[in-house]
Each structure stands twice: as structure tokens, then as C-alpha cells.
Amino acid sequence: MTRYRARRSRTRRWIERILLLAGVAGLGVWAWSVAGQAVYQDWGNWAFERQVRGERATIGEYLRARLGHPTAAQKSTPPQQTIPPPGPPPATENNALLGRLSIPRLDLHAMVREGVGEKTLGLALGHIPGTALPGQNGNVGVAGHRDTLFRGLREIHRNDLIRFETSTGSHEYRVESTQVVAPQDVSVLAAHQSPELTLVTCYPFYYVGAAPDRFIVKAREVPRDVPAAGPMEEPPRAVPAHASKVVEHKPDVKRIGFEIGKNHSRQLAPGISLGVTGTDEASHRVDGWMWVMPDRRAIWLRDHSAHEPVIFYGRLDGKMRELVITSVARNRIRGYLLSPDDGRR
């Protein structure tokens, strides 16, 4: 009997060791997948920025850049950067880097590769083969995992802005609807007359195991049309700080103060909303976006400096507006909007 109990005890210890090893191995696989995705996203962003500038992107240069060593391109005089005109990107091979997708309000930024294989979706978002490419008429389909890069889609709202950047141009889309469909329902990817974007992920978001449904986000491209003449043609631009004082003291202009937290948005005036996606208190710079509803357009703030006014004109009324950020804290900004006083409060 004693020998039997000893043998059973040894068997139990071996089972415990095997289960422990299996748990450690499972944890290691999970950690490796998370780390691999993070490393690829960093590499993809770095490579994409260089691709847009027409520069070479190699693993060696990437490692030197991340280790703080100057690359060959940094040692030489950098070429003047030009913004390519919008247009359809060339056809890409499976698993190739296609571009970068971002949803400012959700602070969602992810690289997009061609294809929806497990290898691709384990590292990035995947462009669904057979759907249109950004810049082409049709329906651009993008898929991603609900528990990694597309986790934030559970908080998406109507009218949220989605930006899809490629090496040949940037395209902006406005969310129109969301829905839940069966996996077999591929009609959501059907092309229509106007350019649109469809995001696809599994649903429910917190389901354990293979989720039974698909969560769909439908967005339509924001038109790029600009009137042929008049002050409405002028793009948003920064002007010297003293110029804002001239506008501020006009009797037909009202000053609207605001305070907005990071990863939040607020309506500043009827049809004008401001969202903040990033703040740098040390350099007093902000990342964010401004949505002008009457004109159906977005104004992107990229590494924007405080006290640097942004001037823009309403395409419908031709009147000038001015946005000024006066202070940048760790997770909050303050400022004001100068807008024509139409009597509305």
C-alpha cells in the first residue's frame, strides 16, 4: 500500500510539472505574439515614413535608428520632402506593406498589409483581397483581430473620422453606420458608386473562443472638392501670432474658449468639433483633428505648436475662422476659437 501511494504521489508531481511547463509555454507564446506585433508596428511606421519620402528602408538602418546611430540618409543632406498627389496605389503582393490606418478619436493607429492570412493579421491589419485600394472607386475592405489592433472598434461612433495613408496619398472617411452580420454575409464588401471603406472584425468583442459573428463599420470617403475661386480655396495655414489680435477685436467675431482632455473631443461651435489624440507638455505640441461639419472635411493637427494659429475658411459662407491653442498640459489642452458671430449661442 505504501509503495502504491508513493507511485501515485510521483505521478501527481509529474503531472503538476507538465501542466506548469504547459502554462509557462502558453504564456511565452502569448508574450511573443504581443511583442512581435508591437515590434512590427514600430518597424512598419518607420518604414512607411521613409517610403513616403522616397528613402530606402532596411533592417540595418532601422536598428541603427532605434539604437540612436545616424543612418546614411541622416548623415547626408536630406532631400526636400514633397507630398505626392492623391491617386490609386499600385497593386501589391500578398503580405506587402500597404499603408497606415488611423481613427483619431479612438487613438487607433495600425499598419495595413495586403491579405488576411493568419500571418498577416497576427502583425497588422489586412487589406481584403478583391476589394478596392484607397484612391480607387469602390469599397476598400480592411480586417483585423477584435482582441488586438481592432479592439477599439467597440467604441466607434457615427461621424468618426478614419484616415488611410498610402505612399501615393492620404484618404479620409467618415463613419456612417455599424452592424453585426454572419460570417457568410459578404454583401457588406459589395462596391457602390462612391468610394467607401469597410472595417471587419469578429463579434462579440469579449467572446471566449472563435466569435460567431462579424462586426462591420461602414464609412464613406470625405470629398476633396474645392470651390474654383474665392477665399474658400485657401487651405488651413499657420500665421504669425499678431494676426490673431486683428481678428479678435472685430465686433462681428466671437471668441469661444475651450478645454479638452486627451483622447476626447468637443463641439466648439455649431458644426465645428475638435478632438485631441496626443499632447507633449515639454514641447507644447498637440496631435488632433478638427471636423467642419457643414463642409464635410477634416483639418488634421500633426505635431502642432501652441500659440500657432490655424486659419481656415468656411466653404459655404466664405468667412474666416481661427483656432488657437494657448496651453498644453500632460493630458489636456486649452485654447479658443474665433468665429463669425451669427447670433447663435
Features:
345 residues; alpha+beta; Tick-borne Encephalitis virus Glycoprotein, domain 1; 3 domains; 5-stranded antiparallel sheet; 5 helices
The major beta sheet can be summarized as: 8 strands, mixed, barrel
CATH topology of the largest domain: Sortase, Chain: A
Number of helices: 5
Radius of gyration: 25 Å
Which CATH-level-2 architecture of the largest domain?
Answer: Beta Barrel
Classification by helices and strands: alpha+beta
> Which assembly state applies to the chains in this document?
single chain
Tell me the helix content.
10-25%
CATH C-level class of the largest domain is Mainly Beta
Provide mean pLDDT, rounded: 75
CATH superfamily of the largest domain: Sortase
What best-fitting shape do the alpha-carbon axes yield? Answer: globular
| Portion in strands | 35-45%
Strand order of the largest sheet: 1-2-3-4-7-8-6-5
N- and C-termini, Cα separation: 89 Å
SSE pattern, N- to C-terminal? HHHEEHEEEEEEEHEEEEEEEE
**Number of strand elements:** 17
How many structural domains in the coordinates?
3
- Are there runs of 5+ residues with pLDDT below 50, and where? 29-34, 72-91, 226-251
Tell me what the structure shows.
It is a single chain. The longest helix has 51 residues, at 2-52. An 8-stranded mixed beta barrel has the order 1-2-3-4-7-8-6-5. A hairpin with a 3-residue loop joins strand 16 and strand 17. Residues 29-34, 72-91 and 226-251 have low confidence and may be disordered. It has 3 domains: 2-60; 83-221, Sortase (Sortase, Chain: A); 231-340, Tick-borne Encephalitis virus Glycoprotein, domain 1 (Sandwich), CATH 2.60.98. Helix content is 22%, strand content 36%. It has 345 residues and is an alpha+beta fold. It has 5 helices and 17 strands.
